[in-house]
Amino acid sequence: MPEIRKDAFGNGWVIFSDKRMGRPNDYEKKGIKCPFCRGREEETPPEILSWPSKKNWQIRLVPNRYPALTSIENFIKPSNGLYEYAGGYGLHDVLIETPEHNSSMEKFSTERIGKIFEICAQRCAGMKKEKNIKYAMVFKNVGRNAGASLRHPHSQIIGLPLVPVTAENELQKSAAFYKKNRKCLFCETLKNEMKLKERLVYENSSYAAFCPFASRFFFEVWIMPKKHQPEFEAGNNDFYSLAAAVKNVFSKLKKSVKDLSYNMIIHSSPKGDYRHYHWHIEILPKLANMAGFEWGSGFHINSLKPETAADILRKGKIFNPDREER
Ligand SMILES: [Zn+2]
Ligand SMILES: [Zn+2]
What we know:
Bound molecules: zinc ion
Radius of gyration: 20 Å
Strand order of the largest sheet: 3-4-7-9-8-13-14-12-11-10
Largest sheet: 10 strands, antiparallel
CATH topology of the largest domain: HIT family, subunit A
Number of strands: 14
Order of helices and strands: EEEEEEEHEEHHEEEHEEHH
Mean pLDDT: 91
Low-confidence stretches: none
Number of domains: 2
CATH superfamily of the largest domain: HIT-like
Strand content: 15-25%
CATH class of the largest domain: Alpha Beta
């Protein structure tokens, strides 16, 4: 049975789970049969949803066969001061984004991307209705450096019994900013980025994409709704404008960065009233793994300033690590 333990020194939660072992990995082993391809539907647990239909599916949502958490509801123990832990309860799904094994986000139609976000939002809302789920997160790993195990385009949706540390940090910072300024930290940042334009990558009527001021990773891009909205799954988000933004950003990233590996994460508010929060997407390209200094200090070393990264993306230049002025 998986278990979640909290690090008393502020380093977050650790999930202990042996279920993740034995996952197929087509980056390591050639010739494995892809469980997400059409015709191999029986290799995943039965679907939660298929779009547009079960037989002619274009998008499939299935429970993860190798979940990090268990769907059996179990204990949550209060802290005794030193050790805080919870049973490894949670929900963990896989969203198969296309039947095409060798496709990728920038090749998808905006209709497909919009539908993907719609299904993700619907599932996150469903997860958050569960009594003991406090937080739902959508994430996507692409490429070996980003921890992906299967090439076939897919995202994962996870429902957690607690609020993860990254979300807690953003919630605290935005709450403090709101208390002091009576304004949303995210709205203010977005307004400023749209005015300055030097880190702006893309903009349409509902969304803007920019390289954040303190980008942790080279070519890091955030996509944010222009309208203040705490929850990704709130129901009034225009996912087709979002799809246009996402497709544009990935086309630019693919053009400028060779062998792009990345994580894409949707940050939304936890269950409850967090009106000072503002949902957004973080795209974190991965060049290399974090090393000792990063782990030891919480610092990130980034070889490329976001102003340069945004300029390269906007102009459609090809990034050459040896030539680029930093
Ligand atoms: Zn496949
Ligand atoms: Zn806002």
